[in-house]
Amino acid sequence: MDGLYDEVRAAIHAVWQRRWLALGIAWALCLAGWLVVSQIPNQYVSTARIDVQLRSILPAQDGSVARNEQEKDIERVRQTLTSAVNLKKVVLATDLANTVSSDQDIANRVAALQKAIKVTPQQDNIFEISATIANAGASDATNAKLARDVVQKLIDIFVEDNLANNRGQTSQSLRFLDQQLDQRQQALQAAETKKADFQSRFLGSLPGTGTIADRVGQARTQLAQVNADLAAAQSSLNAVNGQMAGTPQSTAGAAGVSGPARARLAAIQGQLAEARGRGWTDSHPDVIALNSQLAQAQAAARSEPLYGGGGGASNPLYLSLQAMQADRAAQVASLSQRKAQLEGDLSRLSDTMASEPGMAGELAAIDRDYLVLKDQYDKLLASREEVRLRSQVQTETDAVKFAVIDPPTRPQAPAAPNRPLFLTAILIVGLGGGAAAAFAMSKLQTTYPTAGRLEKASGLPVIGSIGEVVTAAQTAIRQRQLKLFAGGIGGLVVAFVVLIGVEFLQRGLVA
């Protein structure tokens, strides 16, 4: 511990012996450092926050797609805000215009602004815009005002350009769609004319509509339906003929008027014959009900007396079956005629396909081209109406809403450099550097501040040491030198305090 204490005392003594060297180096380091710090321009930062809300007025077919489109629009806004075109507007609209005289100057200012401006996206579509201004040739107040003006101009461009771009892009889209619609309409009209001309030359005398294959398919479908209807009609006719074969044309009894029971019996028999003519079986609910009524009517008719003289009368059931037979026969004849017509149409279509093998392919190509053009035209028309409607929504409503959450701030103090900290650090470094230089110089010169160090260095015993005898004149000189040294240290501290005061005074003037 005593050795360490001696070493510290020796180091302090060595520095003190060379104190003027330490003071000179301290002044040199401090002056050089303070000069460098004074040349660093103050950086003033102005910030603002804006909220961008893209409201979807119209319902989107796919919510995720609409959300992705909005995110892309916001990202595009963020990237284009600091484009060279927009920053050139900022340069010409602020005090930076006073510092440019050529296109090269403008390009240099734009390049500097691209590094000085930051657009930081935050949550919920909020953007923070910041601008850092540090013009060495301008005052601090001018730089602070310029930082705020730059951010304000960026906000103006942000709002104006996006509204104008949305409407400009919509107008451009509408013009493009109108041009495409005109082209498709002309092509569609030409296809329709070609199709109508082909049909009038080749298909005008053929039955049906559409291509030959479509017409053949339609004829075969109709023929299959007619065959099914004809089979049903013939079956119904055969059933009526069977009923007529087992029904007498006249009934035995009075030639006069029958009683009510017999009239009711005849009516039920007629209804039952008509039901069977329709193809209803005995298990049909209506046939079961009619059979039950028929049994009751037959019992009542047997007990009813006859009126009038002898002879026969026409059977009402037979007459009803005759009417049904005529109707079924007419239906069968009509269906047979329709079948013959369809078979003739199929024959004509088959002959046409055999005689003109390329006509079907040509007609199919014409129809295919027409359908493709029609589909494209319909899609373009739907797209145009959607764009037009969205354009109307953007024009008449606030589909894109901008809100300035925090307006551009006017900086009261420079963001960088931290001049008081730098000045203090340079003072400490200067004093430490002077002391270190003095100590290093003591190591280069061979001196022995204590008898113990001399004994250790020489290896010989030191009998004793003689103290320095200082005269009154030397004491006066040393006191004067001490005052001068203290004045040198004090001057360094005063210079530091003055620089700190000037710094805070300048900040006060900015505020």
Describe this structure in words.
The protein is an alpha+beta fold. It has 14 helices and six strands. The protein has helices at 2-17, 19-39, 63-81, 84-93, 103-116, 140-203, 212-245, 260-277, 285-303, 316-355, 357-396, 419-444, 451-458, 472-510; strands spanning 44-54, 117-122, 126-133, 250-252, 312-314, 400-406. It has a four-stranded antiparallel beta sheet. Strands 4-5 form a two-stranded antiparallel sheet. The radius of gyration is 58 Å and the shape is rod-shaped. The model is unreliable at 253-257 (pLDDT under 50).
Main beta sheet strand tally, sense and closure? 4 strands, antiparallel
* Mean pLDDT, all residues: 76
**Arrangement of strands in the largest sheet:** 2-3-1-6
Q: Give the C-alpha Rg.
A: 58 Å
Low-confidence runs: 253-257
Q: What fraction, in percent, of the residue positions are helical?
A: over 70%
Report the strand count: 6
How do you describe this structure in short?
By secondary structure, the protein is an alpha+beta fold. It has 14 helices and 6 strands.
Keywords:
511 residues; 14 helices; alpha+beta; single chain; 6 strands
Spell out the blueprint of helices and strands:
Elements: H1 2-17, H2 19-39, E1 44-54, H3 63-81, H4 84-93, H5 103-116, E2 117-122, E3 126-133, H6 140-203, H7 212-245, E4 250-252, H8 260-277, H9 285-303, E5 312-314, H10 316-355, H11 357-396, E6 400-406, H12 419-444, H13 451-458, H14 472-510
Antiparallel strand pairs: 1-3, 1-6, 2-3, 4-5
Helix pairs in contact: 1-12, 2-12, 2-14, 4-5, 4-6, 6-11, 7-8, 7-10, 8-9, 8-10, 10-11, 12-14
